Amino acid sequence: MSSLSTPPPSVSVFRCHELLDVITSFQPGLPQDLHVFLALSYPKINLGTPVSQHDMFLVKLSFASVHAAIEPWYLIYGVTRLSKLVACAPQLVDLFFADAVFFGEVAIVTLLLRLVQSTPTPLPLKRDALTVAAMNGQVDMFQHLQQWQYRNVSTNVMTWATHGGHLAMLQYLHEQHATGASAQTMDMAARNGHLHVVQWLGAFRSEGASVRAMDLAAAQGQLRVLEWLHAHRREGCTTLAMDLAARNGHLNVVIWLHEHTQEGCSTGAMNLAAGFGHLKVLKWLHTNRSEGCTKKAIRAAAKHGHLKVVRWLHHVMHLKCTRAVLEFAITGRHWDVVAFVARNLSR
To answer: Which N-terminal stretch is annotated as signal sequence (predicted)?
Structure first.
């Protein structure tokens, strides 16, 4: 009876992850648990291009999607499996390293670097690691990488840190006499509403800002930032500020710009507001501004299915329901708009 209840030694071996790892370490090929990562790569970010051309949300989303695949693997295998990864799949080292750097996992980074040191594989992400740490505000990681002789940083490193509002990272870079800042640094801080960063840059850095600071802040509805820039900076803004605020439905910003700046707006303000269905903004602009709109307004509203806006533009702004407007509504499959335009079609 006892012989039936006691499993043979081979079964005990296969049930023990540690023993099985020792046995399979003598086998060539890639372990099954690592195959899933072959389809992934660490987020490719062109660190040489202006930061404004990157959407930080998409950058973070890319890292989050990689992390979502890696984190469950750590929960099952822990970090002891990393030696197998380095030995059997060196092409995956950059992926795991970037994930650890971005999320501030100093212990994992240290282990990977020690494992890589004993192989012909070069240090991972030699060019990008410091900037990846900076863009997510990982000061401890940045310092740790410096201890491993990582030196290369992007010329935009301070702007990357600013994009995420990471003031502690900026302060450390400033203390290190980093040169990776420009007027774009404050512009990006303003765009993303990081008032504390804008104020610090104004006090401790000399790069200043450009008119894009107020333009971009207005576009994103960052009223407190606009107020500070208007009071403490002299770059001003352009008509794009009100145009883009109207586009995104920030009526409070449109009103503030009207009351506190002289740049005004263009016909683009109403045209863009119409395309995005912001009827309250349209009504305010019509009452308080003189720029008006063009036929682009009713076409954009029809294209995106904003029936109330199309009706208002036709009845109040006297924009014609033309065949072009009808075609835009049909293309968007907005049948309620199609019906209205068809009933009011200009002869």
So the answer is: none
